[in-house]
Amino acid sequence: MSNLKVTITDDKGRECPIENIRTFQKHLQLFHKTGVSIHDENGHYFTVDDSFRQKVDDLVSGLPG
After folding, report:
1. Structural domain of residue 13, as residue ranges?
2. Which residue among 13, 17, 39, 55 is least enclosed by CB atoms within 10 Å?
3. What is the pLDDT of residue 64?
C-alpha cells in the first residue's frame, strides 16, 4: 500500500479513497486554486474552498519525506 493513499470524507459524509494525495493536491492547485468550486472524484463530490485546500495541504505536509 502506498504511503500517499488517504481517505477523505466527501460532501455527503461518505469516505473516498485518494490513491495519491500529492497528485490530488496538484490538481486542486491547477484547477481549483481560488474561490469555491466542486470537485468530482469518482462520484464523490467535494466543495473546494480555502478550508478544504488547507485540509489537503495539511495532509500532504504530514507525509514523510
Report:
1. 6-61
2. 13
3. 81
Q: How many CB atoms lie within 10 A of CB 27?
A: 15
User: Please, are residues 18 and 24 in contact by the beta-carbon 8 Å criterion?
Assistant: yes
Helices 21-31, 50-61: inter-axial angle, 10-degree rounding? 150
Check whether 2 has a pLDDT greater than 80. Answer: no
Is the residue at 43 inside a domain?
yes
Any idea how long the chain is? 65
Which set of grid coordinates corresponds to residue 65? 519525506
Average of per-residue pLDDT across 23-45: 98
Domain count, the chain: 1
- Classify residue 16: in a domain, yes or no: yes
Judged against a pLDDT cut of 70, whether residue 1 lies above it is answered with: no
